[in-house]
Amino acid sequence: MVDLSSLTDAQLKSQLLHYGVKAGPIVGSTRALYERKLQRLMAHSSQFKFNGTSDAAKYSDSEEDEGEEEEEEEEDEEESGSEQLGPESVSRTETSATARTVGLYSQSKDLIYPQCFSPALRQGKKRGSLESSRSSSQSFSITELVEEIENRLSPQSKPAATERCSQMPKEKRVLWDLQQLNKNTMTNTSLYLTPQCLPHQKQTTTIKPACEPVTDILTELFPDTVTTPTGITATKRRSIKGAAGRPVQFKYLETPLSPATLERREIQHRLVPLWVQIVVFLLLAALLYLIYVSIEDPLENPFSVLLDSLSDEPALAPSSQDVSTSEVAA
Amino acid sequence: MSSTSQKHKEFVAEPMGEKSVMALAGIGEVLGKRLEEKGFDKAYVVLGQFLVLKKDEELFRDWLKDTCGANAKQQGDCYSCLREWCDSFL
């Protein structure tokens, strides 16, 4: 672990941000607290990392740490401490159960596999223990196992042969598989592992299979992840970065038909052709002109009437005045 | 903390002014002395620490435990007292 006291304030802050904590000002009076918090977060995250398939020793180790911390934190509340320990110990037994089945491999190889490995590992171990007497010198690797399954499923492999194999009794089958494959790869019998075989396997689970560390790291890191009919996908869990790479590839395929161009095309489909537009425009223009022409004549009439009435009025008014003056005069 | 203490109510009721650190809920004679030794003689100094920790409960509790060895209840009292004071006066 990094020595936290050697970090600068900014580094400490960014580290905390990395764990999703928005730290306040890191000053003399707060720095120690943030350091402690970061340490706790680090311990927590590493515990999560090992939680799945790591061996029991590591898990119990981290649990002890947790216990101490709990004691520190809750000096006065021992009851809450015991409460906290309760579920933890339960989960410990759960994981240690898997660790017992898986652990033999991971311990001996000093490798930590992600959780998705565990079913395959379990089967691999059972199979390994079966064969350990026969082929103790063989090394075991998940990727090779996957490749093996793929090979078997590829059209080159003889279907008749696999059928024959599945019909063979188990002991012979294993031997046959051993003959079929090259010496570096372990045979894959997981395809043929049926519930009938299980009792036999359980007897031998205590045998620790001899295995050598996996040498082929490249294939380990980049397995061809084609789904198998067994439903067991022995793929190494990728980091977020690796996962983010996939959509990029997808994007490259899409570039000629980017969303914008697609949209444009759709719009173009919907648009009426240019000549239709021109025709419509001309028609409208003609129509408007006709309306204008037809309106021009009747326009004159109302105005002329109005003008007539206006010109009439002054003629009328003096006559009435004349009448009134004539009346006055009378 | 089902019910708030008298001390809590008194503290939250008014601006803290120049109140001593012992006016804070959860901080008694002993813890107050320890805090004063460390330079936290006034309630507002503790408030400053509380604020610089961004009112984070976990961190403040941690700090209080470190500084004066307050137990969980005292930590909680002091924290909620300061938080409520901030809610009404900040």
TrEMBL record, chain A:
Alphabetically ordered keywords of this record: Membrane, Transmembrane, Transmembrane helix
CDD domains to which the protein is assigned, alphabetical: LEM_LAP2_LEMD1
Disordered, as annotated region: 52-98
Membrane-spanning segments: 274-295
The keyword Transmembrane helix is annotated on this UniProt entry: yes
Biased composition (Acidic residues): 62-81
PROSITE patterns: LEM
InterPro entries membership: LEM/LEM-like_dom_sf, LEM_dom, LEM_domain
PANTHER family: LAMINA-ASSOCIATED POLYPEPTIDE 2, ISOFORMS BETA_GAMMA, LAMINA-ASSOCIATED POLYPEPTIDE THYMOPOIETIN
Protein name per UniProt: Uncharacterized protein
Native organism: Pygocentrus nattereri
Lineage: Eukaryota, Metazoa, Chordata, Craniata, Vertebrata
From TrEMBL, chain B:
GO molecular function terms listed in the Swiss-Prot or TrEMBL record: DNA binding
Gene Ontology cellular component annotations, sorted alphabetically: condensed chromosome; cytoplasm; nuclear envelope
Name of the protein described by the UniProt record: Barrier-to-autointegration factor
Keyword DNA-binding: yes
Matching InterPro entries: BAF (IPR051387), BAF_prot (IPR004122), BAF_sf (IPR036617)
Pfam families for the chain: SAM_BAF (PF02961)
Family (UniProt): Belongs to the BAF family.
SMART domains recorded: BAF
Gene Ontology biological process terms from the UniProt entry: chromosome organization
Keyword check for Phosphoprotein: no
Main location: nucleus
Subcellular locations according to the entry: Chromosome; Cytoplasm; Nucleus envelope
Source organism (scientific name): Pygocentrus nattereri
Keyword annotations from UniProtKB, A to Z: Chromosome, Cytoplasm, DNA-binding, Nucleus
